[in-house]
Amino acid sequence: MLTRNAQIRFAEPTGLMFHHFHGGIHPMVQGSIDASQFRTILSAVGVQNILSADTWMQKAIDDELHPNETCVTFDDALLCQYEVAKPVLDELGIKAFWFIYTSVFEGTVEKLELFRYFRSTAFGDVDDFYHAFFRMVEERLGTLYVKLREEFDPATYLPNSPFYTWSDRWFRFLRDHVLGQEYFPIIEDMIDASKFDREKAAQILWLRGEQVRDLADQGHVIGLHSHTHPTTMGKLPYDEQLKEYRSNADYIFRLTGKTARVVSHPCNSYNADTLELLARLGIELGFRADVGQVRTRGPLEYRREDHANLLRLIQEC
Ligand SMILES: [Zn+2]
Question: CA within 20 to 30 Å of 302's CA: 116, 127, 141, 146, which one?
Fold first, then answer.
């Protein structure tokens, strides 16, 4: 049970980062929250401290943000954000940042999101999924799997996401650092072996173009999040990164008629090239996906706190 009057204060300007919501047609998935938990987080932070996105952006650019000032951010163009969280914001009169990847508006099914939905809905619980997945990977990698597992140190992998279990970390490590392109056929095989309906899932997962336009028309701020959502943007060559962000920016302009000025880094991955090319594209403000220390924080590296951490802080109050 959440404490109703818990309070959270930040030491420096920090965005609130939200991904998955459940309610209505949207099933509970790993890490999802409902409208009432969303409301509880907003009140713990203090509605008076939550600036609408355009105000936050202007104050950040003018370097006038107070440490306790925060804003609401949504990543990944998810329909559940629009249908579950936006009505709460409407009641409170708050406008948010919506960081959208745009390949999904061309009808491309973004596999990582589809796979997350698959692993959250087609198994008894997420550990059942991990069990099946780890067995599959071990079959393919053989002794390499055993060696990697012996060497894996969960304490040093994704240390800024303390809510991840050992299996969450091992899964992400295998997916993002070991399997590369081999990850996709493994999950496709698992989907083929199940009764999961890809088309139906895609319709429930993502915003439609007219909803993005509607958000922009209502004063919400639409920002970049790359075109296809690579998980390791910071490792891609300059030209590929530029292509990702330029396509994303062009698409947002086509959808909304407005030029994007803000970014959130997918999977918190970027390097000096990324920051340089984003500035070239006219991006003035950006968000990381954590509150980790950055030696010299530039305007494209504002902190964000994940909603799972926020809930944990409330429960500890
Ligand atoms: Zn993302």
Answer: 116
